[in-house]
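User: Predict the structure for this protein chain, please.
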Amino acid sequence: MIDLGISKLALIGAVALIVIGPEKLPKVARTVGTLLGKAQRYVSDVKAEVGRAMELDELKKMRDTVESAARDVGNTIQTQASEFENSWSHSDAAAALPVEAEPPAYKHPGKNWRLKQGATPHWYKARNGVRTKALSGAARVARFRPRRTS
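Assistant: Here is the predicted structure, written as structure tokens:
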């Protein structure tokens, strides 16, 4: 890498002051600073992209190893299951097992799904005087209307 010390920077600054001139030097310094900043951002973006690519490669390798291990486990389970089925079908114990009847058909419990059931039992509501039926406005007025005594 380029070794820039304080003496070399001072020499570059003096030459720039002589060549560019004191009027344009601040503008040139700002332009050089922005270009250096853009270059640093570009380098950091490239480094981040390379790092992401390396991580992606590592993840792909890890995925391949996990998939191969899963395939191996699946193959061993399949071979052991087929060996078990073969031994089960050839054993005498399989012939001694009773044949199970077909399970009974599904019967609906017969609940009325249109009727909403509350969580509080009706006997509790009746004992404590809780209303269990809704009254319309006209029925409520008729129920609580004072009776005429004539």
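Residues 1-72 form one domain.
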